[in-house]
Design a protein that fits this description.
Elements (H helix, E strand, L loop, with lengths): L40 E10 L3 H12 L4 E4 L35 H10 L11 H19 L2 E3 L3 E8 L2 E9 L2 E12 L5 H5 L4 E3 L9 E5 L3 H11 L4 H9 L11 H9 L5 E3 L3 E9 L7 E9 L6 H25 L7 E5 L9 E3 L7 H5 L7 E5 L10 E4 L11 E3 L14 H21 L8 H11 L1 H6 L2
Parallel strand pairs: 1-2, 1-6, 2-3, 6-16
Antiparallel strand pairs: 4-5, 5-6, 7-13, 8-11, 8-12, 9-10, 10-11, 14-15
């Protein structure tokens, strides 16, 4: 993508090439001209946060608490992203517990406050009870934003960026009221796939790694112990069953055999399915650790596509919405322990790893993590949750700055290339906090985000975060 900034008030599409849905409907070619419009401006704020997921929530609270008139724009009708309406899609709020140095005093600052409020002071990780916590995440987000004086615009999709030279000066959104304009002094891209940065003309990278998309759902009235006994009593699979399992489009999980073969032969239900010609769809099970006693499950969609391809993601969602009820019926008809099982709840959105990320001024690499890199402009510490590296790795402020565009910061997955597991939820929250404070400082001093006094930013973060204080940053 060209690094040249769009002309004033030009909307840069930044749309990625389609990975292909395989459906004839989308094979039509050609273009049409969109008539010019006078778009009503409905808000003029200091800081606009695009995306109300876990990083965007913290960024907006931070910006508002430090004096900026702040607005969050969220695509969905509730806040929290993969920790909210998506029901966590597996995992908890990981705190890099395998690293003995990580957060000995607990996660600090606004993220620590948010997470404590989500579990209402209980001594447990956020996400240890998916069903309770995903509601609490959305509720707590709205409460904290309201208390901080931030505004929220839900059910609104960012469709373009208002450009003034090379500065991102606001966004266009689409909702039931039509196309609307929102002006701002600073934008924080927390969309998860750098959508604002791409539309503003900033260089972005589309990582080719498997995005591992999925949708969470829950099964009620299951007897998990009976299921586990059936697996133990089953013994080793016959050579014929093993051959059948391996012959599928994707090897079937051993935990569903031989019942998956029976369902295929009797009902025609395939436990591993293809989504057109670019992805495979399957499901996994896990036992709830909360109340009520539910068996949680998620679809896994692997293949050659990217989460920024709207047509591909639409096809995936379409397949999931038929697959999930049919998977629940498969469990009930064929799998011991699930004879009374019913589909209890399905998350309203699909989440994915990977996608677009900004070409930041500095990109943190695996080598940086392995050498426990130190940077003069550190704004938070990253601890790998799978491998111990002494002292963790600094995440520099430059990581939040896109190249080629002013008036813009990115936090969370929008600023993270697929590689080091910096997309961990607690790290995304810490990045959001840094971006929110930096945006407020840029507005306060009338400078661009790249010209923020990093020493002043660090002093504020130092007071917020005991980990930075312990490190003496």
């Amino acid at each position: 993508m060209s690094k040249d900034a769009p002309a004033a008030d030009e909307v840069a599409s930044g749309a990625p090439p389609l990975s292909g849905s395989g459906a004839d409907l989308w094979n039509v070619t050609g273009t049409v001209e969109r008539p010019s419009q006078q778009i009503p401006v409905i808000a003029d704020v200091d800081v606009l946060v695009a995306g109300g997921g876990v990083g965007g929530i913290i960024a907006a609270v931070a910006a508002a608490r430090y004096g900026a008139r702040t607005l969050v724009v969220e695509t969905h009708s509730s806040l929290g992203g993969n920790m909210g309406p998506a029901m966590f899609v597996g995992g908890t709020l990981h705190l890099a517990l395998h690293n003995p140095e990580a957060f000995p005093n607990g996660l600090g600052g606004i993220p620590g406050e948010f997470n404590r409020r989500v579990v209402d002071g209980e001594a447990r990780n956020v996400g240890s009870d998916y069903f309770r916590d995903h509601h609490s995440v959305s509720y707590t987000a709205l409460k904290m934003l309201t208390e901080a004086g931030a505004d929220v615009l839900l059910s609104s999709v960012v469709s373009g960026v208002i450009m003034e030279g090379r500065r991102a000066a606001g966004v266009f959104v689409e909702n039931k009221s039509g196309t609307l304009a929102l002006r701002s002094k600073v934008i924080i891209d927390c969309t998860g796939t750098a959508d604002v940065a791409a539309r503003a003309g900033a260089p972005v990278t589309e990582m080719p790694s498997n995005p591992s998309a999925g949708t969470f759902f829950a099964i009620a009235n299951a007897d998990w112990d009976a299921y586990q006994r059936a697996l133990a009593d089953r013994g080793d699979l016959s050579p014929d069953d093993q051959a059948w399992m391996q012959a599928q489009v994707c090897p079937v999980s051993d935990g569903f055999m031989p019942w998956a073969r029976t369902a295929c032969e009797l009902d025609g239900f395939k436990i591993v399915q293809t989504v057109d010609d670019f992805a495979t769809l399957e499901a996994t099970l896990m036992l709830s650790r909360g109340e009520p006693p539910l068996v949680y499950a998620r679809t896994r969609v692997n293949g050659n596509y990217n989460p920024g391809d709207g047509l591909a993601m639409s096809r995936i969602a379409q397949h999931e919405r038929t697959y999930i009820p049919e998977f629940a019926a498969f469990l009930r008809r064929h799998v011991p322990g699930f004879e009374r099982a019913q589909l209890h709840v399905v998350a309203p959105l699909t989440c994915a790893r990977g996608g677009k990320s900004i070409e930041s001024v500095y990109v943190v690499t695996h080598d940086d993590v392995a050498r426990s890199a130190r940077f003069h402009d550190v704004v938070c510490i990253y601890y790998d949750d799978k491998q111990y590296y002494p002292g963790g790795c600094d995440l520099p402020y430059r990581m939040l700055l896109p190249q080629g565009v002013d008036g813009l910061l990115a936090a969370g997955k929008s600023a993270v290339r697929r590689g080091p597991q910096i997309r961990q939820r607690h790290t995304v929250q810490l990045m959001g906090q840094a971006a929110g404070v930096a945006a407020a400082l840029a507005v306060k001093h009338g400078v661009q985000p790249r010209d923020v006094d990093v020493a002043e930013l660090q002093r504020i973060l130092h007071a917020l975060d005991p980990e930075l204080e312990r490190r003496g940053v």
